[in-house]
Amino acid sequence: MKILLSNDDGYFAPGIQTLFTAIKDHAVFDRMVLIAPERNRSAASNSLTLTEPLRIQEHSLAYAHASSSPICQVFSVNGTPTDCVHLGINGALEYEPDIVISGINAGANMGDDVLYSGTVAAATEGRFLGRPSVAISLCGHRYFDTAAQVLLTVLADLPSMNLRADTILNINVPDVPLSELKGLKITRLGRRHVSEPVVKQQDPRGLPIFWIGPAGIAADAGEGTDFFAIEQGYASITPLKIDLTCYEMMNTLQQWLPKIHS
Q: Does the domain made of 2-192+218-261 have the CATH classification 3.40.1210.10?
């Protein structure tokens, strides 16, 4: 197995460092390559860089040094998470990775978050390019090793899951020590309230500037949702479909269509 590891927090972020080391030390693979943004690109969603060239730079980092035979490499890219995965699968390497793993993100990616998340987008790009893909996030900033162990558990059983070609796995893990994790739950996406208003300030010249406000609190967070699982101390595993078509609406639109031609 050849693994492509990416994220949206940057190649230097503690989450991806922890995951890189955990996979290197405990998983069976032939090669692993980390290709991630050169800086934090959180909330980049599925954006691609089309107006400037992309540059890929190799790094020699402490957590990338492999004492065993599998080859491990680390690269940064002056682009988005989607750029990174696109490069990694579509021609920047001398081989093609078999699987894409995105994370570990510092902060949850639940409910509506998946529409904005660069972490989920990296996994989505992997699926667009025909690779089984997993996104993993820690609902906090401390116990990345807990999330890494959850990912290793999933990775060991991934071949038996028979992931559909239009599906990725979105994993969220409570920010607790591994000993306090209650287990895993298969969940659906919850939903947040509308995000908080933008924050208006002034720059030193007195001109207005704006900051995007915080995400809304959970609205649909009942049993069975990713929000509920995390609140109860479980890691949530949510299968996400890439096909966004609202099939239930198609018949209604078909009935409406003749009216505009009458």
A: yes
Residues 6+ apart with CB under 8 A from 160: none
The per-residue pLDDT for range 105-138, each reduced to its tens digit, is 999 999 888 898 999 999 999 999 999 999 999 9
| Per-residue pLDDT reduced to its tens digit, 48-100 | 889 999 999 999 876 665 555 568 899 999 999 999 999 999 988 989 999 99
Question: What's the rounded Cα separation, in Å, for the pair 109 and 35?
Answer: 20
CB atoms within 10 A of CB 87: 19
Q: Whole-model pTM? A: 0.87
As a three-state string, the secondary structure of 106-130 is ECCCCHHHHHCCHHHHHHHHHHHCC
Structure tokens at 116: 């904005």
d(CA 91, CA 93): 6
Q: Pairing relation of β-strands 218-220 and 191-192?
A: antiparallel
The span from the CA of 3 to the CA of 100, in Å, is: 6
